[in-house]
Amino acid sequence: MDEKFQRILAGFGYTLGRAAKEDGEMGLLYALRNAKKPEEFYRVLNDAQFRLEMTIPEALLRIEKGERIFGVPWVRVKPYLQFMP
Q1: Which of 30, 62, 63, 84 sits CB 3.0–4.6 Å from 17 for a disulfide?
Q2: How confident is the prediction along the chain (85 residues), in pLDDT tens digits per residue?
Q3: Concatenated DSSP letters of 8-54
Q4: Contact (Cβ atoms closer than 8 angstroms) between residue 60 and residue 1
Q5: Distance, CA of 46 to CA of 65 (rounded, Å)
Q6: Where does residue 16 rank: exposed (0-12), middle (13-18), buried (19+ CB within 10 A)?
Q7: Cβ neighbour number for residue 59 with a 10 Å cutoff
């Protein structure tokens, strides 16, 4: 995984976790963790975007063949977005 992409994920994951905690929306983080398919993963991110009023980094929206995000299997991306402050 590209180091720049890791930093983007870690930063967004921290911001997402902090916002979810502050707004009482911890269910979003659980739903993100429990996503079994890329479609579920993106649905939860979409919900987070509107419920927490945040913008998802463009790099995270880069969907590629083979269920990859920015060249990485989507299941390897999930753990980076579950940080909690």
Answers
A1: 84
A2: 778 888 888 888 888 989 988 999 888 888 988 999 889 989 999 999 999 999 988 888 888 888 888 888 888 888 877 665 5
A3: HHHHHHHHHHHHHHHTT-HHHHHHHHH--SHHHHHHHHHHHHHHTT-
A4: no
A5: 21
A6: buried
A7: 14
The contacts of residue 50 (CB under 8 Å, 6+ apart) are none
Interatomic CA distance for residues 18 and 65, integer angstroms: 31
Residue 13 to residues 21, 65, 66, 79, Cα–Cα distance (Å)? 12, 24, 23, 9
Contact indicator for 72, 80 with CB cutoff of 8 Å: no
Q: What angle do CA 56, 11, 81 make, to 5 degrees?
A: 65
Is the distance from CB of 71 to CB of 64 less than 8 angstroms? yes
36: CB partners within 8 A, 6+ apart: none
Q: 3-state DSSP call for residue 3?
A: helix
